[in-house]
């Protein structure tokens, strides 16, 4: 790709990699990607970002198409992951007088990545760089998606350089969203990129959106096309995807594999126990329910129970595939446990238990195991184990907002209020009437739940 003029004195000097199919080991890139970099020209010349080290020569060629390399004054590093900082050391070897600009965290990352003591000015919120004919403002936006992340704002050209934020792994040779032919494909990749890179950092995304200047007309990310006509829609998507839905009930996911039905029987007992605890429970056999759906449910669950038989001294691959896909960033307050039936040595449940604890779920002391076919006593113990895991969950729930969720005891007049629940008898605040276990009874007079009537 050659240098592309995006606006007066703003050039794209990055590179395309249309054949890449796996980015950073874990992300699929069906339509390749681009390592974007930008050159601002004027009284002072500024590079924003470098590119993956494999594409350094093409990057230099692009810069030289616009100005001589020695005329570049500054290198702004909005984010220093090696797909962007990979050519910094090579560039500095050619242009030792360049001054690098990054956040404090960015400077440290850069030093640790290059093992060089580079000339780097650190900037904080509100700091500016006067280029004579325009002033750049730096807007730190931490955890988008590293601690070092920041935006650079060119108010004269109403252009915001956002690094990974609002990017996508997608090759658009013209570097502009308005020229994309396969718009649906781009939108799919835009959503996939958000989910993979920013999904774990939703509060930071909302903070980042609020930091974007209202009058931005051009967004220049570090992967995929620049945004012009899609800025509003992209921001709206990010805000929707990052805004938590009201939560009035805790959720549980019981995911398992079962060769001969023994672990399945345990899973069913666990699910029933969690339903009785007021959880919205989903159960899935990993050999039946698609892997991606299992991962999604695992991410959504406040309580996760993983069941597996032991095959060749381990859990089968399908179980590990789900567990190793769990993003450990947002597990605060969540609880998990492992269980399984086994025939000889029974290593699977302890292995899964150790892994779950390593992810920092709240977890009981030990997993739950049963030798071969569960007895009724085993199933009762499984239910107690599931409840003990649920008891470790501290994810908050929102109180229902309507008064009409109250129910009144037809015998003694006691009123069940979902906002208060009945914690003394195992019903958490925020539990709607429909989720109160059928075994619950009136705490005043002891009659069954079915003796209650909806409050007027
Ligand atoms: Fe594209 Fe976080 O690097």
List the helices and strands and how they pair.
Elements: E1 4-7, E2 10-12, E3 15-17, E4 22-23, E5 27-28, E6 33-35, E7 38-40, E8 46-48, H1 56-66, E9 74-76, H2 82-85, H3 88-94, E10 99-102, H4 104-114, E11 120-122, E12 128-130, E13 135-140, E14 150-154, E15 159-163, H5 183-198, H6 202-211, E16 218-221, H7 231-242, E17 251-256, H8 262-276, E18 280-285, H9 291-300, E19 303-307, H10 317-323, E20 335-342, H11 348-358, E21 368-371, H12 376-390, E22 407-409, E23 415-416, E24 452-454
Helix pairs in contact: 6-7, 8-12, 9-10
Bound molecules: MU-OXO-diiron (FEO).
MU-OXO-diiron is lined by residues 79, 81, 83-84, 145, 164, 222-223.
What is the overall shape?
elongated
- Low-confidence segments, given as residue ranges, are none
Beta content comes to 15-25%
How many DSSP E strands? Answer: 24
Largest sheet properties: 7 strands, mixed
User: What share of residues is helical?
Assistant: 25-40%
- How far apart are the termini? 69 Å
The order of strands across the largest sheet is 1-2-7-8-9-10-11
Secondary structure category: alpha/beta
Rg is 27 Å
Task: Quote the average pLDDT.
Answer: 95
| Cofactors, ions and other ligands in the entry | MU-OXO-diiron
State the helix count.
Answer: 12
Written overview of the protein:
The protein has 456 residues and is of the alpha/beta class. The protein has twelve helices and 24 strands. The chain has helices at residues 56-66, 82-85, 88-94, 104-114, 183-198, 202-211, 231-242, 262-276, 291-300, 317-323, 348-358, 376-390, and strands at residues 4-7, 10-12, 15-17, 22-23, 27-28, 33-35, 38-40, 46-48, 74-76, 99-102, 120-122, 128-130, 135-140, 150-154, 159-163, 218-221, 251-256, 280-285, 303-307, 335-342, 368-371, 407-409, 415-416, 452-454. A seven-stranded mixed sheet has the order 1-2-7-8-9-10-11. Strands 12-13-14-15-16 form a five-stranded mixed sheet, with no helix packed on it. Helix 8 (262-276) packs across helix 12. The longest helix has 16 residues, at 183-198. It starts with a strand and ends with a strand. The mean pLDDT is 95. Bound molecules: MU-OXO-diiron (FEO). The site of MU-OXO-diiron has 8 residues, from helix 2. MU-OXO-diiron binds at residues 79, 81, 83-84, 145, 164, 222-223.
């Amino acid at each position: 790709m050659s240098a592309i003029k995006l606006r007066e004195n703003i050039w794209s000097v990055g590179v395309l990699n249309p054949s890449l199919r796996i980015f950073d080991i874990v992300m699929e890139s069906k339509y390749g990607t681009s390592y974007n970099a930008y050159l601002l020209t004027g009284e002072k010349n500024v590079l924003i970002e470098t590119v993956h080290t494999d594409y350094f020569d093409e990057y230099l060629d692009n810069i030289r198409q616009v100005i001589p390399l020695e005329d570049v004054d500054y290198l702004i590093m909005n984010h220093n992951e090696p797909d962007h900082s990979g050519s910094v050391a090579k560039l500095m070897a050619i242009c030792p007088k360049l001054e690098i600009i990054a956040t404090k965290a960015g400077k440290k990352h850069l030093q640790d990545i290059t093992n060089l003591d580079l000339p780097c000015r650190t900037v904080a919120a509100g700091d500016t760089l006067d280029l004579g004919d325009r002033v750049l403002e730096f807007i730190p936006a931490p955890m988008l998606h590293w601690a070092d992340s920041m935006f650079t704002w060119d108010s004269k050209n109403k252009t915001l350089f956002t690094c990974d934020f609002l990017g996508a792994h997608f090759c658009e040779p013209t570097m502009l969203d308005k020229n994309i032919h396969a718009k649906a494909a781009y939108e799919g990749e835009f959503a996939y990129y958000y989910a993979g890179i920013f999904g774990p950092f939703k509060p930071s995304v909302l903070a980042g959106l609020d930091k974007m200047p209202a009058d931005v007309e051009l967004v220049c990310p570090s992967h995929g096309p620049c945004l012009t006509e899609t800025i509003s829609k992209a921001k709206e998507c990010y805000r929707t995807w990052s805004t938590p839905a009201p939560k009035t009930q805790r959720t549980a996911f019981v995911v398992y594999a079962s060769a001969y039905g023994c672990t399945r029987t345990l899973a069913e007992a666990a699910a029933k126990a969690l339903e009785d605890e007021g959880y919205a429970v989903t159960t899935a056999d990993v050999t039946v329910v698609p892997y991606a759906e299992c991962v999604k449910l695992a991410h959504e669950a406040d309580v996760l129970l993983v069941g597996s038989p032991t095959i060749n001294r381990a859990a089968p691959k399908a179980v590990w595939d789900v567990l190793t896909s769990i993003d450990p960033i947002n597990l605060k307050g969540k609880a998990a446990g492992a269980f399984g039936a086994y025939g000889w040595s029974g290593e699977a449940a302890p292995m899964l238990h150790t892994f779950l604890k390593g992810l920092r779920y709240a977890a009981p002391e030990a997993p739950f195991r049963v030798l071969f076919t569960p007895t009724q006593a085993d199933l009762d113990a499984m239910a107690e184990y599931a409840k003990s895991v649920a008891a470790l969950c501290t994810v908050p729930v929102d109180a229902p907002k309507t008064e009409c969720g109250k129910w009144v005891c037809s015998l003694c007049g006691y009123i069940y209020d979902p906002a208060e629940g009945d914690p003394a008898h195992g019903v958490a605040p925020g539990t709607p009437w429909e989720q109160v276990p059928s075994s619950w009874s009136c705490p005043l007079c002891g009659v069954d739940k079915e003796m209650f009537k909806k409050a007027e």
